[in-house]
Amino acid sequence: MTIAFWLQLAVVLVLLGLAALTVAQAVHFDGQIDRAVRLVPDGASDDPR
Predict the structure, then answer these.
(1) Rounded to 5 degrees, what angle do the CA atoms 32, 23, 37 make?
(2) Residue ranges in the chain assigned as alpha helix (H)
(3) Are 37 and 43 in contact, with CB atoms under 8 Å apart?
(4) Could you tell me if residue 21 is inside a domain?
């Protein structure tokens, strides 16, 4: 196997890791947003002022 193959494999693994990290952070922040909404019940009213 050539050096180019190993470099491509390394790039693919790094990109997959970044994608997984992005999904994990999105799930984490979604939970934080839900928690903030529960803590401030009147914070998200449908009546713009």
Answers:
(1) 15
(2) 3-39
(3) yes
(4) yes
Rounded to 5 degrees, what angle do the CA atoms 26, 13, 18 make?
A: 20
- Enclosing domain of residue 1: 1-39
List, in order, residues 6 or more apart from 35 with CB less than 8 Å away: none
Higher-confidence residue of 21 and 39: namely: 21
Burial bucket for residue 32 (CB in 10 Å: 0-12, 13-18, 19+) = exposed
**CA–CA–CA angle 16, 22, 24 (5° rounding):** 105
**Residue 3 token pair:** 């050096």
Check: CB of residue 10 under 8 Å from CB of residue 18.
no
How many residues in the chain?
49
Kindly report whether the global pTM for this prediction surpasses the value 0.85. no
